[in-house]
Input
Amino acid sequence: MSAPFFLGRIIDVIYTNPTGDYSSSLTRLCLALSGVFLCGAAANAVRVYLMQTSGQRIVNRLRASLFSSVLRQEVAFFDKTRTGELINRLSSDTALLGRSVTENLSDGLRAGAQASVGIGMMFFVSPHLATFVLSVVPPISILAVIYGRYLRKLTKLTQDSLAQATQLAEERIGNIRTVRAFGKEMTEIEKYTSKVDFVMQLARKEAIARAGFFGATGLSGNLIVLSVLYKGGLLMGSAHMTVGELSSFLMYAFWVGLSIGGLSSFYSELMKGLGAGGRLWELLERKPGLPFDEGLTLNEKSFQGALEFKNVHFTYPARPEVPIFQDFSLSIPSGSVTALVGPSGSGKSTVVSLLLRLYDPLSGTISLDGRDIRQLNPVWLRSKIGTVSQEPILFSCSIAENIAYGAEDPSAVTAEQVEKVAEVANATAFIRSFPQGFSTMVGEKGVLLSGGQKQRIAIARALLKNPKILLLDEATSALDAENEYLVQEALDRLMEGRTVLIIAHRLSTIKNANMVAVLDRGKIIECGNHDELLAKPDGIYRKLMNKQSFVSA
Ligand SMILES: Nc1ncnc2c1ncn2[C@@H]1O[C@H](COP(=O)(O)OP(=O)(O)OP(=O)(O)O)[C@@H](O)[C@H]1O
Output
């Protein structure tokens, strides 16, 4: 900021010495000025480096905290929130906020410092001229406030619309097989295009506001310079100012004008950042509806794994008006196999979700070894439960990594352990048939594997976890005879010595279970073993069997 001052002094030295005897003063002033330039250049380089790195660090930390906050939320939160929206917050909102508080903040601070020192220097060089010039500041400030508010609102709307577009793209790309099977590519393209077109409309509004604001601030800057020339010329004519002072003043005024332009751009970026930030804080500060990692753990030695539902009432938070369980009671003794049967939509999978404490009942209790699971640490509880669902979801990594995912610390799992559980799960033969064996990549959600293969990997994963309690959801779709046999044998081995609740679709499973519980419209209506239930003349179970809705394997 001292450069214009020195430049003015140099001009005055030259003009006030018509004899030309000013070389020593000129050298001194030029040396001083080059020193100033050097310091300025070094400071600028350091500023850019620090701002870039701290900017990235802020974005990284924001992303990590946000991801951690999202993963801790209760499952009901994910029932209501769209994945694409969360992805958009993680990627786009964090980048916008990060940029706004670093690079932009640095430019803003620089512009602010330049403007205030510039104004100070203007007063130092000519208080009279400075007062005259700064009368244009208040109208610009009012304009800036109106513009900032409008931009903040617009950014929030833009980010929301962008999130909707991301959501649509994410869902359709993730389910491309369904889109293809129904031949809906063109419809989906049109839907997506209309969503991004709306984002474009908002961007156009922003561009108009921005153009107006920048035009106004640019014009004000130029008017400042013009008025300095006019008023300064008059002051010089009346010998109240030297040519060097007017030059210095002009340069300061020019800098102040530039800084005001910089400040307006800083302000608009800051407003955009705050627009995106509001949505981020909401999520960062959200307290999970269910505790994440707190509560009691039971004594491992005396742990039995007996489960009991007592007078449970439950509705899903996303649809509180539809009761799923009303006075639901069921006892699953330790070490026994209980088969849960019932029509589609009767609440079988909900029983599993409640046992995993993905949701809490409205009233009644679910207990493990006589202890209400709400008192237990959910992480500990889930570590004691293994699940194999109808259509197991695998992650897009290797087969070995997918199996090791079952262990508490996957990085500590050895290749031998993985191979051993794969053997028990009847998975070794097909894994070995792949050229890359256990290192074969399974694709997103395991799309590169067949249903039976995915199930056996999920069984191996559950075996590695070695849980006391098993919650199984048998596949409804019939596998071919060989696969069927291999999966069934693997499941039988997995069930040995554990408390098992199995959502049963196969007659053989039902027949072998210690107890069959028949669920209908959220209530257990019959309970007993296969033969006992079949013996009831008007029993629902008997009717279900007659409908032959079970896979008779
Ligand atoms: N996350 C959810 N939010 C709101 N309602 C849900 C949710 N999940 C399931 N439901 C509803 O709860 C009821 C019971 O569903 P559930 O999946 O437990 O049935 P199910 O007996 O396992 O059915 P199926 O045999 O077809 O898998 C259904 O009416 C279903 O629409």
